[in-house]
Amino acid sequence: MIAILLIALPAFASDTWSDPAPGIRLLERTTSEPQRIYALQVDLCERGVSLRATAEDERQRTVSSFGALVGAQAAVNGDFFSFDDYYTSGMAIGDGALWNDDTTSEGFVAFGRDHALLTPPAEEWSDPATWMAQAVGGRPQLVVDGVAGTGFTEPSHCTADNPRTAVGLSQDRRTLWLVVVDGRSDDSDGMTCDALASLMQGFGAYTAMNLDGGGSSTLWVKGEGDVNQPSDGSERTVANHLAVLAGGSGAPESCDFWQDEVLDQAGVLDAPGLTDVDGDGRADACARAAASFRCQPSTGDGFGEPWTIPDLSDDAGFGDEAHYASIRMADVNGDRLADVCARGPGGFACWPSTGAAFGASVPGPALTDAAGWNDVAYASTLRMGDIDGDGKDDLCARGVGGISCYRSTGRAYEPALVGPELSDAAGWGKPEYYGTIRLGDIDGDGKYDLCARAGAGMWCWRSDGAGFPDRVDGPVWSDDAGWDDVQYWSTIRLADIDGDSRADLCGRGPAGYECWLSDGDGFPTSVVGPALSDASGWDDHSNYATIRLADVDGDRDLDVCARANAGVYCWLYDAGAYAARIDGPLLSDDSGWDDPRFYTTLRMGDIDADGRADLCGRDASGLGCWPATGTGFSGRVAGPEWSDALGWAAPQYYTTIRFGGGSILATPDTGDGQDSGPPAAEVSHEGDAGCGCGSGGRPAWFAMASGLPLLLRRRRFGAARS
């Protein structure tokens, strides 16, 4: 007898990709097991993309029938259901109306304006959130926090190979996966739930859920029909469905912006920023291109030649979001010149301004990727403020165990000070909490304090220069009041709106904008702001994400500006109220400013040193600025040619635009006509980071760890030219 050695060979796969519609890619995969797998990859942030789930009077249809009914480009079957009445097992919302309640045994995937969420059964939703316009239930949860589950025994069919349907979302909730696996045939065995979980994780799903399978599993694509082969031989009539509409020209409906708000927008928090790199009292324009970071000094009616920092190039690892989103500008050595700092794969470093260029880099704290600092929950929390009152901006950041702060000596960092215990273990690992960390001087003692939103509301901890021993409670912006929604918590700012050298708290709630004035020991006095309410449409990210605080009329208090659908408006602060409104540039939806490549770049700073904050923003042609006149804004001043044609439509470039400060930070008014000197107790420039900067060569850490795991960006574009 001849012995035969049997070797288990890995299954091979044949992948074929097609593009059925803008924002949609279709994968057809065959393997030797054998299996036929069909996966629809949907970019939820592509213009014209929206989702549609079945309404109650639309149930009991085939997948193709539902897709055609709602004008979709693709559709799959939905939740488990009863053949008796075609009602689903779990929660079902279609076209904005709830028609079946959630149960404790099911999770669900939901979509709405600027929201996408896949939640496990452990999440308790007594009532659907107000934003939920479409939802489909399912079970079990296949992937949780990027980890594929194993050992599934419920439902009982999970342990056997069967046709399967699954839905998954990427970590940033920007990419949707709709997957169907054929089964019960000679050329496709189907899958167990364990295998399906591994498949979804491999596609990049951070969360994923099993939907109804067996004869229900169907993926339909317009123009192609059913791309899989349903195991019954033809489509089954099912209770509900999930469809993708694409190819339109409007803003994407369910592009979830939570990660933008904690990462990309963290470096440009209001109140206002600092970019005067040459000390002439004018805010300069800074941003990162593929080959370098650059700042172009303002001339008052334009911008000069760039100062560059090649160390912040794509080749040095700064094309990754965990790194380019860390760029901060602050005065770290007290010389009133804006310096540049950033966190690379091997830690934090700064490049000091000499007044004519950027000097050699100096390394700061070792906030490395290897130590986990590329995780969005930590990478996004870098904040700068002068916590010890010496005129030099210090660095604070949240790690797994809580807040640590590093005081700048001007040439180095001191060892870390332990701040409030905003740890993961204490529940601070959610973006609605760590995304609200702010620095500002709430008691006017010249030392920056720390504030953040907990589940019960705002808390602030006062700095004594060596720590944060005293907690002060702020407004009750609680989860129960809805402030755990990104459209509210992302608007929270800590800034001195009334010019009394104490930082106040402002934010947009469901009814509109509101501020609470600090008296040093609390926030007892409310100021009703503009009616930027949900009812009037301000729950749209293209509107609420543009809220800015700046002094546009030169009276040394802070006004509120924001982009409405028709253009930019500013409401002037006067005597404890926001009364008069002035109109700004017509940066309207009709002219394309509802595109996040443009509206998220709106910044305010003084380009002409007249004491009034001007408005700047990037459109397809490049950066433009509109100088404030005190009663309005004058015509567009051309800025750097950071145009779409030159590659600046990529998020790794346009999100790094930094602009703010100028003469509006230079000489705070003491009330006696005298210059008060360095702005130790001046308006907070929270969100900027600093370092101890002196002489020295390029830090070795920029060449380190190029193979370490990094945060994944949802899209890739061409490189912005240097």
Fold and architecture overview:
This protein is mainly β. The strands form 10 sheets. Strands 1-2-3-14-13-15-11-12 form an 8-stranded antiparallel β-sheet. Strand 2 (24-31) and strand 3 (35-43) form a beta hairpin. The longest helix has 11 residues, at 193-203.
Helical fraction equals under 10%
Number of strands: 45
Mean pLDDT: 89
- Range of strand content: 25-35%
* Shape annotation: elongated
Oligomer: single chain
Features:
722 residues; mainly beta; eight-stranded antiparallel sheet; 11 helices; 45 strands
List the helices and strands and how they pair.
Elements: E1 13-21, E2 24-31, E3 35-43, E4 50-53, H1 63-69, E5 74-77, E6 92-94, E7 97-100, E8 107-112, E9 115-119, E10 134-138, E11 141-144, E12 147-148, E13 164-169, E14 175-181, H2 193-203, E15 207-210, E16 219-221, E17 225-226, E18 241-245, H3 258-264, E19 285-288, E20 293-296, E21 307-309, H4 314-318, H5 321-324, E22 328-330, E23 339-344, E24 347-351, E25 362-363, H6 376-379, E26 383-385, E27 394-399, E28 402-406, E29 417-418, H7 431-434, E30 438-440, E31 449-454, E32 457-462, E33 470-473, H8 486-489, E34 493-495, E35 504-509, E36 512-517, E37 525-528, H9 541-544, E38 548-550, E39 559-564, E40 567-574, E41 577-583, H10 596-599, E42 603-605, E43 614-619, E44 622-626, E45 637-638, H11 651-654
Antiparallel strand pairs: 1-2, 2-3, 3-14, 4-18, 5-16, 5-18, 6-7, 6-10, 8-9, 8-10, 11-12, 11-15, 13-14, 13-15, 16-17, 19-20, 20-21, 22-23, 23-24, 24-25, 26-27, 27-28, 28-29, 30-31, 31-32, 32-33, 34-35, 35-36, 36-37, 38-39, 39-40, 40-41, 42-43, 43-44, 44-45
